[in-house]
């Protein structure tokens, strides 16, 4: 288990991370979201012991990163941003080096390295210098390095940044496969990724935690949450009346026009807070014998939640 | 501090010299220049003496620009490629990392020095030198190389820019050489008390290197070089701790 306790980091007058506390347990994949410069990387650098916190600390399995850095570093696998690796080395030599530093020896070491090479598909480039590898392969070398010693905790700073869609999918599959037995903390600014791999997401901006919950919980904060999109065929003349009757249904907050072209009418209906209005609307449509072509409920948009949360903050600061 | 971790870092670093042209370029230039210096500038043959004094005399000057070139990448490169973040989040301490890297660079200069053995063979072929004096010369040269490297390691930790690291290292090393030079000492001896002149000269590489080169291995000269190395490596560790995130 990883416990982050009142973590704070100053760079001169700049407060990069401002009193952050949270806990992550085994089996959780925590996604760290936030705009650039929000403090994601700084937090991860403190968790992995690269940066020393100004105040506060991180406990990994009860070991304190400030007091017992080596104990903590042993338990963590870390993929720094951009997956740095020694460019002159080949992946084979590089992984051998990492295995030695991690204290793996003899047959176990051999076996472990072979397993990992297989797992991240490095066979074809093993003896090519890392310098000459494509971005995707470099990232895989970085991942291999991070999971080589089968750490309890994995910290991945933008693991899929700059990869093509297939490579992204591969990395996510890999992460999901390991999720059960590990604590995984990853940062990203790709919101679809949160849905794809994370069981929990934390949004941070200007060094503070603004939201913490499952991806679904975060989506529920969206104004699109439970909004209903309805498309139907009707005369243009009836449009006004249809809008009117939709907005008078119980629980409906307002109706937005998506399009009213030819005889295709499309509306987005927003509920009052937390209400579900899909039942009401479909019932009404059936009663009125509307020619409904499309009817669906929005779960909410993470990017919209992200934007509204992080923008609120910067606006309130400017005022 | 764990020897095992230092050795792992040591071997990786040493291998990295040979993975790039650096090792070969360095060794070839070193051998070539030390040859030229010894035979042309040092009048190796014309002197008609069986010793390696003309060979060792030029080492401080050779080191002055070769060693900073070797040392400048030690930490600056780790910074530039971002591997410093990888290195310092592995289960190693900063002290272990500083020592492992330094010892690798030092071992590399030892290899370069060993490669000069033909000159030792020739002098033994041509005459009857005192080989213990020659051995002392080699030990002195290696110790001096270590001091140059430790300074270079510190300057390399100071900046991401290898050119800057190179230039500052040359300047600091030059100061350490010149402080034993008559030119500098004469400037002080006119007015400064004897004690100060002695102190300045005692800081010089030349004073101690020449002392060892005479074949007398004085513990004080050894201590001088080792304490210089220790001091600059300590400074390296502190600088990295302070500036690792820059």
Report on the architecture of this protein.
The complex is a heterodimer of chains A (319) and B (246). Chain A has 319 residues and is an alpha/beta fold. Chain A folds into two domains: 2-219, P-loop containing nucleotide triphosphate hydrolases (Rossmann fold, 3-Layer(aba) Sandwich); 228-297, Alpha-Beta Plaits (2-Layer Sandwich), CATH 3.30.70. Chain A is built from eleven helices and 14 strands. Chain A has helices at 40-47, 69-75, 91-101, 106-119, 135-147, 165-179, 191-197, 215-219, 239-247, 278-288, 302-318, and strands spanning 2-11, 14-24, 29-33, 55-60, 63-64, 76-79, 153-157, 183-188, 200-205, 208-213, 228-233, 252-261, 264-271, 291-297. In chain A, the strands form three sheets. Chain A has a six-stranded mixed beta sheet with strand order 6-7-8-3-9-10, with helices on both faces. In chain A, strands 2-1-4-5 form a four-stranded antiparallel beta sheet, with helices on one face. A four-stranded antiparallel beta sheet of chain A has the order 12-13-11-14, covered by helices on one side. The mean pLDDT of chain A is 88. By secondary structure, chain B is mainly alpha-helical. Chain B has one domain. Helix content of chain B is 81%, strand content 0%. Chain B contains 15 helices and no strands. Chain B has helices spanning 3-19, 22-41, 44-47, 53-57, 59-71, 73-81, 83-87, 94-114, 117-126, 131-158, 162-178, 182-189, 194-202, 205-213, 219-243. The longest helix of chain B is centred in the middle third of the chain and has 28 residues, at 131-158. The radius of gyration of chain B is 19 Å and the shape is globular. Chain A binds chain B through residues 11, 45, 48-51, 69-70, 73-74, 76, 78, 80-82, 84-89, 93, 97-98, 100-103, 129, 145, and chain B through 5, 8-9, 12, 15-16, 19-20, 81-83, 85-86, 88-93, 244-245.
Question: In a nutshell, what does this entry contain?
Answer:
The complex is a heterodimer of chains A (319) and B (246). Chain A has 319 residues and is an alpha/beta fold.
């Amino acid at each position: 288990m990883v416990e982050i306790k009142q973590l704070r980091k100053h760079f001169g007058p700049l407060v990069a991370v401002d009193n952050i506390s949270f806990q992550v347990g085994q089996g959780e994949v925590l996604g760290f979201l936030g705009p650039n410069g929000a403090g994601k990387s700084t937090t991860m650098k403190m968790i992995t012991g690269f940066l020393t916190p100004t105040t506060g600390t991180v406990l990994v399995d009860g070991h304190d990163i400030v007091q017992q850095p080596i104990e903590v570093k042993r338990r963590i696998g870390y993929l720094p941003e951009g997956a740095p690796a020694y460019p002159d080395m080949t992946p084979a030599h590089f992984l051998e080096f990492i295995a030695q530093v991690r204290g793996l020896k003899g047959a176990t070491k051999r076996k472990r390295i072979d397993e990992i090479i297989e797992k991240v598909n490095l066979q074809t480039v093993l003896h090519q210098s890392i310098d000459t590898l494509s971005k995707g392969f470099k990232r895989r070398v970085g991942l291999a390095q991070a999971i080589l010693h089968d750490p309890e905790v994995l910290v991945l700073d933008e693991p899929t940044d700059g990869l093509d869609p297939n490579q992204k999918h591969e990395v996510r599959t890999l992460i999901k496969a390991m999720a059960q037995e590990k604590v995984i903390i990853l940062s990203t600014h790709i919101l679809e990724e949160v849905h794809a791999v994370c069981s929990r997401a934390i949004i941070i901006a200007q060094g503070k935690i603004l939201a913490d919950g499952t991806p679904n919980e975060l989506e529920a904060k969206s104004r699109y949450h439970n909004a209903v999109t309805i498309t139907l065929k009707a005369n243009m003349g009836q449009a006004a009346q249809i809008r009117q009757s939709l907005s008078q249904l119980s629980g409906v907050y307002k109706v937005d026009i998506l399009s009213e072209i030819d005889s295709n009418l499309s509306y987005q209906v927003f509920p009052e807070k937390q209400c579900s209005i899909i039942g009401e609307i479909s019932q009404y449509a059936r009663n009125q014998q509307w020619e409904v072509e499309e009817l669906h409920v929005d779960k909410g948009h993470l990017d919209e939640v992200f934007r509204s949360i992080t923008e609120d903050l910067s606006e309130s600061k400017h005022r | 501090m764990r020897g095992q971790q230092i050795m792992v870092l040591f071997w990786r670093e040493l291998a990295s010299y040979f993975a790039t042209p650096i090792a070969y370029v360095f060794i070839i230039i070193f051998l070539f220049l030390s040859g030229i210096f010894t035979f042309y500038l040092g009048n190796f043959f014309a002197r008609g003496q069986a010793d390696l004094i003309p060979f060792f005399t030029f080492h401080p000057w050779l080191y002055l620009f070769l060693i900073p070139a070797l040392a400048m990448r030690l930490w600056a490169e780790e910074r530039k490629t971002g591997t410093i973040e990888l290195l310092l989040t592995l289960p190693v301490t900063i002290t272990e990392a500083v020592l492992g890297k330094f010892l690798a660079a030092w071992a590399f200069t030892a290899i370069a020095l060993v490669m000069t053995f033909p000159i030792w063979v020739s002098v033994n072929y041509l005459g009857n030198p005192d080989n213990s004096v020659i051995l002392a010369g080699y030990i002195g040269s290696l110790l001096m190389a270590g001091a140059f490297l430790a300074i270079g390691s510190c300057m390399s930790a100071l900046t991401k820019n290898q050119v800057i690291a190179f230039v500052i290292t040359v300047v600091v090393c030059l100061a350490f050489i010149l402080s034993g030079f008559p030119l500098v000492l004469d400037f002080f001896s006119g007015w400064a008390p004897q004690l100060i002149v002695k102190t300045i000269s005692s800081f010089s590489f030349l004073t101690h290197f020449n002392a060892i080169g005479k074949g007398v291995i004085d513990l004080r000269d050894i201590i001088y070089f080792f304490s210089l190395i220790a001091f600059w490596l300590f400074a390296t560790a502190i600088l990295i701790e302070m500036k690792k995130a820059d």
